[in-house]
UniProtKB/TrEMBL annotation:
Top-level division of the source organism's lineage: Bacteria
Biological processes annotated in GO: carbohydrate metabolic process; N-acetylglucosamine catabolic process
Residues of the Glucosamine/galactosamine-6-phosphate isomerase domain: 10-228
MF-aspect GO terms: glucosamine-6-phosphate deaminase activity
Protein name: Glucosamine-6-phosphate deaminase
Portion of the parent chain present: 18 to 261 of 641
Protein backbone atom coordinates (compact mmCIF):
# COMPACT_ATOMS: atom_id res chain seq x y z
CA UNK A 1 0.00 0.00 0.00
CA UNK A 2 1.48 3.33 -1.03
CA UNK A 3 0.68 6.55 0.83
CA UNK A 4 1.65 10.06 -0.29
CA UNK A 5 3.87 10.61 2.76
CA UNK A 6 5.23 8.81 5.82
CA UNK A 7 3.10 10.83 8.25
CA UNK A 8 -0.14 9.59 6.69
CA UNK A 9 1.23 6.05 6.42
CA UNK A 10 2.48 6.05 10.03
CA UNK A 11 -0.93 7.15 11.31
CA UNK A 12 -2.60 4.31 9.40
CA UNK A 13 -0.20 1.76 10.91
CA UNK A 14 -0.70 3.22 14.42
CA UNK A 15 -4.46 3.00 13.87
CA UNK A 16 -4.14 -0.68 12.93
CA UNK A 17 -2.11 -1.37 16.10
CA UNK A 18 -4.65 0.53 18.22
CA UNK A 19 -7.51 -1.49 16.69
CA UNK A 20 -5.79 -4.78 17.66
CA UNK A 21 -5.18 -3.52 21.21
CA UNK A 22 -8.84 -2.45 21.61
CA UNK A 23 -10.28 -5.63 20.07
CA UNK A 24 -8.17 -7.80 22.37
CA UNK A 25 -9.13 -5.66 25.38
CA UNK A 26 -12.86 -6.17 24.68
CA UNK A 27 -12.18 -9.93 24.51
CA UNK A 28 -10.31 -9.74 27.85
CA UNK A 29 -7.12 -10.86 26.09
CA UNK A 30 -3.57 -9.61 25.65
CA UNK A 31 -2.46 -7.95 22.42
CA UNK A 32 0.95 -9.47 21.57
CA UNK A 33 2.97 -7.05 19.44
CA UNK A 34 6.31 -7.50 17.72
CA UNK A 35 8.06 -4.14 17.64
CA UNK A 36 10.91 -2.66 15.63
CA UNK A 37 13.50 0.07 16.16
CA UNK A 38 15.29 2.42 13.77
CA UNK A 39 14.06 5.70 12.33
CA UNK A 40 11.20 4.12 10.37
CA UNK A 41 8.65 3.40 13.17
CA UNK A 42 9.29 6.55 15.24
CA UNK A 43 6.20 8.41 14.01
CA UNK A 44 4.06 5.29 14.51
CA UNK A 45 5.12 5.29 18.16
CA UNK A 46 4.52 9.04 18.41
CA UNK A 47 0.97 8.54 17.15
CA UNK A 48 0.39 5.67 19.60
CA UNK A 49 1.53 7.95 22.44
CA UNK A 50 -0.92 10.61 21.19
CA UNK A 51 -3.74 8.04 21.08
CA UNK A 52 -2.87 7.12 24.69
CA UNK A 53 -2.67 10.67 26.06
CA UNK A 54 -5.45 12.28 24.04
CA UNK A 55 -7.84 9.41 23.34
CA UNK A 56 -7.30 7.13 26.33
CA UNK A 57 -5.85 4.14 24.46
CA UNK A 58 -4.63 1.84 27.24
CA UNK A 59 -1.59 -0.44 26.96
CA UNK A 60 -2.47 -2.43 30.10
CA UNK A 61 -3.28 -5.51 28.01
CA UNK A 62 -0.27 -5.12 25.68
CA UNK A 63 2.68 -7.53 25.66
CA UNK A 64 5.62 -6.59 23.43
CA UNK A 65 8.55 -8.46 21.93
CA UNK A 66 11.23 -6.38 20.22
CA UNK A 67 12.91 -7.78 17.17
CA UNK A 68 16.53 -7.28 18.08
CA UNK A 69 19.32 -5.68 20.11
CA UNK A 70 23.00 -5.07 19.43
CA UNK A 71 25.40 -7.43 21.19
CA UNK A 72 27.10 -6.64 23.41
CA UNK A 73 25.09 -3.59 24.47
CA UNK A 74 24.67 -1.99 27.90
CA UNK A 75 20.94 -1.50 28.61
CA UNK A 76 21.58 2.14 29.55
CA UNK A 77 23.76 3.04 26.54
CA UNK A 78 22.36 5.75 24.26
CA UNK A 79 22.32 3.33 21.28
CA UNK A 80 20.56 0.48 23.09
CA UNK A 81 17.16 -0.50 21.77
CA UNK A 82 15.92 -0.54 25.39
CA UNK A 83 16.68 3.18 25.65
CA UNK A 84 15.13 3.75 22.20
CA UNK A 85 11.87 2.00 23.10
CA UNK A 86 11.58 3.78 26.45
CA UNK A 87 12.24 7.14 24.82
CA UNK A 88 9.80 6.73 21.94
CA UNK A 89 7.01 4.63 23.47
CA UNK A 90 7.17 2.78 26.76
CA UNK A 91 7.86 5.69 29.14
CA UNK A 92 4.84 7.57 27.72
CA UNK A 93 2.17 4.86 28.03
CA UNK A 94 0.69 2.63 30.72
CA UNK A 95 2.31 -0.65 29.65
CA UNK A 96 3.24 -2.99 32.54
CA UNK A 97 7.07 -3.21 32.71
CA UNK A 98 6.90 -7.02 33.02
CA UNK A 99 5.09 -7.16 29.65
CA UNK A 100 8.06 -5.64 27.80
CA UNK A 101 10.50 -8.08 26.16
CA UNK A 102 13.68 -6.95 24.41
CA UNK A 103 16.69 -9.17 23.62
CA UNK A 104 19.30 -8.69 26.34
CA UNK A 105 22.56 -7.22 25.10
CA UNK A 106 24.21 -7.64 28.51
CA UNK A 107 24.21 -11.45 28.64
CA UNK A 108 27.42 -13.44 29.00
CA UNK A 109 28.17 -15.14 25.68
CA UNK A 110 27.54 -18.62 27.16
CA UNK A 111 24.02 -17.60 28.23
CA UNK A 112 22.88 -16.24 24.85
CA UNK A 113 21.68 -19.53 23.31
CA UNK A 114 19.45 -20.35 26.31
CA UNK A 115 18.09 -16.80 26.33
CA UNK A 116 17.15 -17.09 22.63
CA UNK A 117 15.30 -20.38 23.17
CA UNK A 118 13.46 -18.83 26.11
CA UNK A 119 12.50 -15.80 23.96
CA UNK A 120 10.91 -18.14 21.40
CA UNK A 121 9.16 -20.12 24.14
CA UNK A 122 7.76 -16.97 25.71
CA UNK A 123 6.33 -15.73 22.39
CA UNK A 124 4.62 -19.12 21.95
CA UNK A 125 3.36 -19.10 25.52
CA UNK A 126 1.49 -15.85 24.77
CA UNK A 127 -0.08 -17.55 21.74
CA UNK A 128 2.25 -15.98 19.15
CA UNK A 129 2.51 -12.46 17.80
CA UNK A 130 -0.72 -10.80 16.67
CA UNK A 131 1.25 -8.31 14.61
CA UNK A 132 4.92 -7.83 13.77
CA UNK A 133 6.03 -4.47 12.44
CA UNK A 134 9.26 -4.25 10.47
CA UNK A 135 11.60 -1.75 8.88
CA UNK A 136 14.11 -2.80 6.25
CA UNK A 137 17.86 -2.30 6.22
CA UNK A 138 19.77 -1.53 3.03
CA UNK A 139 21.18 -5.09 2.98
CA UNK A 140 17.58 -6.32 2.82
CA UNK A 141 17.68 -7.37 6.46
CA UNK A 142 14.54 -7.60 8.58
CA UNK A 143 15.30 -7.44 12.29
CA UNK A 144 19.02 -8.15 12.04
CA UNK A 145 18.56 -11.13 9.70
CA UNK A 146 21.38 -10.33 7.34
CA UNK A 147 22.06 -11.89 3.92
CA UNK A 148 22.54 -15.63 4.37
CA UNK A 149 19.79 -16.00 7.00
CA UNK A 150 17.77 -19.19 6.66
CA UNK A 151 13.99 -18.95 6.18
CA UNK A 152 13.36 -21.14 9.24
CA UNK A 153 15.87 -19.33 11.50
CA UNK A 154 14.91 -18.64 15.10
CA UNK A 155 16.05 -16.05 17.63
CA UNK A 156 19.84 -16.16 17.69
CA UNK A 157 23.16 -14.32 17.85
CA UNK A 158 24.24 -13.03 14.41
CA UNK A 159 27.13 -11.10 12.89
CA UNK A 160 26.24 -7.73 11.40
CA UNK A 161 26.87 -7.00 7.74
CA UNK A 162 29.50 -4.35 6.95
CA UNK A 163 26.88 -2.14 5.24
CA UNK A 164 24.64 -2.33 8.33
CA UNK A 165 27.57 -1.31 10.54
CA UNK A 166 28.39 1.51 8.13
CA UNK A 167 24.76 2.75 8.28
CA UNK A 168 24.83 2.63 12.12
CA UNK A 169 28.21 4.43 12.36
CA UNK A 170 26.61 7.85 12.84
CA UNK A 171 24.78 6.67 16.00
CA UNK A 172 27.98 5.25 17.47
CA UNK A 173 30.42 8.01 16.58
CA UNK A 174 32.23 5.87 13.99
CA UNK A 175 31.93 2.41 12.45
CA UNK A 176 34.66 1.00 14.71
CA UNK A 177 32.35 1.51 17.69
CA UNK A 178 29.38 -0.34 16.16
CA UNK A 179 29.03 -3.79 17.78
CA UNK A 180 29.95 -6.68 15.47
CA UNK A 181 26.97 -8.75 16.56
CA UNK A 182 23.31 -8.64 17.51
CA UNK A 183 20.60 -10.85 18.95
CA UNK A 184 17.65 -11.01 16.57
CA UNK A 185 14.37 -12.83 16.14
CA UNK A 186 14.74 -15.16 13.15
CA UNK A 187 12.93 -15.18 9.83
CA UNK A 188 10.98 -18.17 11.15
CA UNK A 189 10.02 -16.24 14.30
CA UNK A 190 8.77 -13.29 12.24
CA UNK A 191 6.84 -15.58 9.88
CA UNK A 192 4.82 -17.03 12.75
CA UNK A 193 3.19 -13.62 13.38
CA UNK A 194 -0.47 -13.57 12.33
CA UNK A 195 0.09 -10.29 10.50
CA UNK A 196 3.29 -8.58 9.30
CA UNK A 197 3.63 -4.94 8.24
CA UNK A 198 6.91 -3.81 6.68
CA UNK A 199 7.29 -0.04 6.50
CA UNK A 200 9.73 1.95 4.36
CA UNK A 201 10.03 5.65 3.73
CA UNK A 202 12.06 7.85 1.41
CA UNK A 203 14.03 7.31 -1.78
CA UNK A 204 17.03 5.81 0.05
CA UNK A 205 14.95 2.66 0.52
CA UNK A 206 13.52 2.55 -3.04
CA UNK A 207 16.23 0.20 -4.38
CA UNK A 208 15.99 -2.37 -1.60
CA UNK A 209 12.16 -2.17 -1.57
CA UNK A 210 12.14 -3.01 -5.28
CA UNK A 211 14.41 -6.02 -4.69
CA UNK A 212 12.32 -7.16 -1.70
CA UNK A 213 8.99 -6.93 -3.55
CA UNK A 214 9.93 -7.86 -7.11
CA UNK A 215 13.27 -9.67 -6.85
CA UNK A 216 13.88 -13.39 -6.81
CA UNK A 217 13.31 -14.95 -3.37
CA UNK A 218 16.77 -15.59 -1.96
CA UNK A 219 18.78 -15.65 1.24
CA UNK A 220 20.88 -12.85 -0.32
CA UNK A 221 17.98 -10.43 0.35
CA UNK A 222 16.21 -11.85 3.43
CA UNK A 223 13.22 -9.47 3.00
CA UNK A 224 12.36 -11.36 -0.23
CA UNK A 225 11.20 -14.25 2.00
CA UNK A 226 8.21 -12.06 2.83
CA UNK A 227 6.92 -12.72 -0.71
CA UNK A 228 6.17 -16.26 0.51
CA UNK A 229 3.75 -15.18 3.25
CA UNK A 230 0.03 -14.49 2.79
CA UNK A 231 -0.02 -12.19 5.80
CA UNK A 232 2.41 -9.48 4.78
CA UNK A 233 1.72 -5.92 3.79
CA UNK A 234 4.36 -3.44 2.63
CA UNK A 235 3.35 0.08 3.72
CA UNK A 236 5.36 2.61 1.72
CA UNK A 237 5.53 6.29 0.97
CA UNK A 238 5.64 7.40 -2.66
CA UNK A 239 9.43 7.81 -2.60
CA UNK A 240 10.16 4.32 -1.23
CA UNK A 241 7.75 2.89 -3.83
CA UNK A 242 9.17 4.97 -6.70
CA UNK A 243 11.06 2.10 -8.41
CA UNK A 244 8.20 -0.43 -8.26
C1 LIG B 1 18.29 -1.57 12.08
C2 LIG B 1 17.23 -2.41 12.78
C3 LIG B 1 16.18 -2.89 11.82
C4 LIG B 1 15.68 -1.69 11.03
C5 LIG B 1 16.81 -1.13 10.19
C6 LIG B 1 16.40 0.06 9.34
O1 LIG B 1 19.25 -2.33 11.48
N1 LIG B 1 17.77 -3.54 13.46
O2 LIG B 1 15.13 -3.54 12.53
O3 LIG B 1 14.61 -2.09 10.21
O4 LIG B 1 17.83 -0.72 11.07
O5 LIG B 1 16.58 1.22 10.06
P1 LIG B 1 15.90 2.61 9.74
O6 LIG B 1 14.45 2.44 10.08
O7 LIG B 1 16.58 3.58 10.65
O8 LIG B 1 16.11 2.87 8.30
Amino acid sequence: TVYPDMLTASKVVAGRIAAIIKKKATEGKEAVLGLATGATPIVVYKELVRLHTEEGLSFKNVVTFNLDEYYPMAATAAQSYKVFMNKHLFSHVDIEPQNINIPDGELAQEDVAAFCLEYERKISEYGGLDLQILGIGRTGHIGFNEPGSAPNSGTRLVSLDELTRHDAAHDFGGKANVPAKAITMGIGTIFKAREIILMAWNEKKAGIVKKAVEGEVSAEIPATYLQLSENVEFVLDTDAASLL
